[in-house]
Structures are given as structure tokens and as C-alpha cells.
Amino acid sequence: MSKETKSFQAETKQLLELMIHSIYTHKDVFLRELISNSSDAIDKIKFKSLTDVSILNGDDDFHIYLKPDKNVNTLSIIDNGIGLTYDELVENLGTIAKSGSKAFVQQLNEMNETSKSDIDIIGQFGVGFYSAFMVANRVTVITKSAYSDKAYKWESTGDGTYTIEETNRDSRGTTIILELRENDADNETTFDEYTEEYKLRELIGKYSDYVRYPIKLDIEREEIPKDENGKPIDGATAETVITTETLNSMVPLWKKDKNSITDEEYNNFYKSKFHDWIDPLDKIHFKVEGNIEYTALLYIPSKAPFNFYSKDFTKNIQLYTKNIFIMDNCDELIPDHFRFVKGLVDSSDFSLNISREILQQNKQLRVISKNLEKKIISTLKEFQQNNLDKYAEFWKEFGEAIKGGIYNDFTSQNKEKLEDLLIFSTSDSDKFSTLENYLSRMKEGQEFIYYVAGENKEALEKLPQMELVKDKGFEVIFLLDRIDEFMIDRMNEYKDKKFKSITKGDLDFVDNEKKEEIKGIETENKDLLDRIKKSLDNKVSGVKISSRLKTSPVCIVTDENGLSLEMEKIMSELPNMSNAKANKILEINPSHSIFTKLKSIYNEDQNSPLLDDFSYILYNQALLIEGFKIEDPVLFSEKLTKIMVG
Ligand code: ADP
Fold this sequence. Notes:
The chain is α+β, with helices and mostly antiparallel strands.
């Protein structure tokens, strides 16, 4: 047979042109593509040999060899897979076999020139074998099919034509020789690195580590010859020693049987793959079969990375198909509130070259992502039930992310299940409590889930508003994270029980008789209360007689439906939010002697400046107790000193 020159099919020509002129940000992937083809070709022969072992001709040492040659700037990829017959060469390398690529080329034809040059071609669709032209001027394929005695050489420079001629190859398999392109003049885009050991190691480690067949490379080293004791011989000149190394680990851990994997193996895999120093807290490893098939291996880290709560943080979920890496940071697989989870999903349902854009609309992906969320929820719930102390450690690291999910995604189907994951400190125990447990401890006749927000438990326990609640024997949930009260506000209720702040609105603890009594005191002292309000100018919207205080003189409460003091404090620190103000009400304890004092000053002289000083001090005192700063400390201490001096 003499050498033939053939034209590529029209669509293939277009694809090649694009490949040659494409931007090079993804050019590394050519190796993954070619190795994946080799691995598929070995899969095929292995499969055939199951029913006809003679097809192997004794060669069952399956492998993929990388042969770089620095002298001529080439890289060869050699496999002993099934090989290609003449017809297959023409059919498979002369046309685009894959429907996805076809569709893409068609789509491309409909685009105008500018958007064409903008698109990130490799990220968009299947590149396969043709990606070789991103890095090579000339691609030569030497192949011998397991079903033919003849070997063929296919060659192209990507210019629209290719040649085929008969050649020799000792045994079955395919060799792909890439004549690497010259580096750019400014060395910004380099190609000669593909002949370097370090680069090949890096790419195999990153993209093809779990290919089932060994990917081998001959490593050359200069070594001084050694004597029989293994000691270098003095004065001897170095010799070139060649050893063959396998660059990939070949074992997709996630595909192994769960029971055969030790904790240590799981942990080592996690640490090396996701670059963490600390063992993970827990792992989730499962396989789904049926309509959609996939294996997932997920890890819950022990510690939040330093940038976890910043914008720089990216999710770390990788997508694989049939053990081959497709994509890092596959965001769509995990909802934002579980963004701390690291891991991978391997599904044979995705094509090797699926792009992010296409993935985002992929139905299977959505189904998988829903399942992953469910699994994570149930794992965390189980963890919470089995070891609340350890769960509390986890919660300290990542609880805020989950709370963010409850706050942001209040329409989520999993809303209730996410709420079950919440834990809080409470007034009744040193330990954390779930809302479910809180409900189980509620007193007879207790209508609400009581809460109070602030910076720490100790300060909250001493709040004047706690007094009567404690007396009643009601447990109070402490909201210590900044997001807590906003989230609770949005939740409004949990399992049909409404939340109620002990520092907002009316607590309604007292019986009718007491209510009447308070009302009476309020009417009786209306003028005094108005006088105090006026003195405090517009700092408070009302001054009231309190039914919630026992021993403390005053407290500040806010409107039932508005911002709480704690919310005001948090919002004042946010840009553009500093004007957000809680509607404050000063409550005075009618049984406290300070009230008697106020009354007597008022009765003596309604305009007494002492009344202004008292009001000012009492108001600021109440703020101090709530953890606020005094607006004008100098004025405060002046007034205080004045009163002390008398
Ligand atoms: P894909 O692998 O996605 O089908 P490619 O463009 O990468 O698309 O390859 C086209 C076809 O060429 C493959 O389907 C396969 O039949 C054949 N092929 C490519 N590389 C090899 C190889 N190393 N050994 C045998 N056949 C190969």
C-alpha cells in the first residue's frame, strides 16, 4: 500500500483549526485526553480477552509508556491497548465521532466571529484526540490492531489533511508521537516542558493518578558506581542509570470496598488530596446504582481554613468520570451552607469533557447534589446524636455556615432538617442543646421558645431581663453568634413553637391582677414617665413601668417586631447600615427604691435638673448592662460625680 493523503471531514477541519488557534490556558489537558484514550483502548482488549484469551498473544502486561525526547522535542504516548485497523483510523481519527463535539461545532457555526474568539474552547466541549494539536505541530499515530497483522502510520500537521501508510510495529497497540511546538518568543507559552520529568509527574499526579493501568516513564540519573557494600567507589566517573517508574498510584480509593479501607487510608487520602494537615472529622463514602450511577467520597474537615468565612474561599469538590479527573471545585455539587465539605464524585454518566457551563444545567448533577446534601445532613445528625461534645467542636468551626443556609435559603426543602442541626448554649445546662431537646424540656404551659442574644453567656446570664424568666423556671437559649438573631427572626418558629426574645416587646408573664397593678402605677406616674422620656430626648421611644424586673432598677427592651439591641450593635458595624436603630424602651422597676427616689424629686420640683441627671445615668447604665458603649463617657462620669457629691 502506498501513502495516501486524505482530507478531514469538514467539521473535523473546523475543530482542528480552533484547536490550533485556541488560547492555551488549558493546553495541559492534552495528556489527560491521550492517556484516557490509551486506558480505554486497554480496557477494550482486556474485555475481549475475557472470552478469548488468545487475542492477547501472551502480552497481558498492560501499560502506558511516556517517552519524552528532549533532543528532538517530542513526546510519545505508547500503549498496548486494542490498536486501530485501517478503517478505524480513517473513521475515528478522520471524523468527529462524538455527537457532543458535532453539536458544538454546529453551535460554533452559528456564532459571530467576535464571540468565537472569546470562547474558552477547551472548557466548552469535547476535545479528545484533537487536543494533541494544541501542543504539537505534527501528530503521528503508529498503530496495530489486535485483529490485524498490519500496522499503519497516520500523520497530520492539522492543516486539513492527513496521510496513512503501512508501517511496522512489533506488537498490538498505539504510539502517538507529538512533535511539540516551539515556545513563544517571549517564553510565555512553553511546550518543551512536556519533555521534562517534573512536568509529566505533575500532570499525571493531577489528572491521571487513578488510571487503572501503570503510566510509566524511564528516569535517567547520573550515578557514581557502587562497590559490593553499596558504597560509591572513590574516583569512579558517573554513569547513566535508567530506571522505569510508574507515575500513577492506580488505585481509586473511592472505588474500593468500604470495609477494606482503613481509617488511616481514608485519612491519608484526604490529607494528600485536599492538602490538609489534620485528619478529617468524618467521612461519607457511598455508591449509588440505578438510573444515575455514581460514587461519592466526602470529608468533613476538623478545622475551618483561615479564609473559610471570607470571599476567597472556594469549595473543593472534584468531579471524576470512570476514575478520571474532570474538574476541580465543582461548586454545583454542594450547597453553599455545606461548602466546608471536601471530596469527590465519580460518575460514569458524565462525559470526560463536560464543561462547567453545560454542567450547571445538567439534571443528573442536580439529582446527585440533592442526594449529597441529604447524606451530609443525615451524617451530621447522626454525629450530633452520637457525640454531642464532638459535634459542638465541629459546630464551632462550621456552624455559622449552616446557620447562613437557614437564613438565606428559607425556602429550602431541607429547611427543617437543617434546623435540626442547630445547637445552642442555654440557661439550663453547661452543654449545648438542640431545639428538639429544648422542646422536650419545656415547662407545662410554656408557650414560647425564649432566647436572648449577646456576646457571651456570662454577661447574658446577668441581664436584668433574665431575672423573672429564671424565676418562672423557663429555659432561655443564648444566641452568641452574630447571625443567630437574624436567623431566628427569619425562622420565626420551630415545630410550631414560636420564638420569643426576653428583651423585646411584652413578655406577658404576669397575671391579670399584677397587670392591673402595673397599669395603675403607670397611670399614676404618667407625668413623671413623660418627664423622663422628654429628658432622654429622642433616645427612647417610651418609658414604662416594668413587669419583668425583680432586683434591677432599669432595663432597655425593644419593639416586638423591630430590631433588637444586639441586632443594632451588629448592623452598626456594617457598611451602609450604621443608621439602623432599634426602637428602645426604658423600663423602670416599680419596686426598686430608685423609683421612690425619682418620684420624690419629681413631687418636689418637676423641673429639677436632678431628674435629668438621674434619667441620663439610668439610661446609660441599662445600655452598659446590655453590652453597649456609653456614647459620652465624660458627660456620664460628670453627672455621676455630681450626684455622688450630692
Ligand atoms: P473519544 O475518545 O471521546 O471517543 P477521541 O477523539 O479522543 O474521542 O478519539 C476518537 C477515537 O479514536 C476513540 O473513540 C478511539 O476509538 C480511537 N482512539 C483514540 N486513541 C486511541 C488509542 N490510543 N488506541 C486505540 N484507539 C484510539
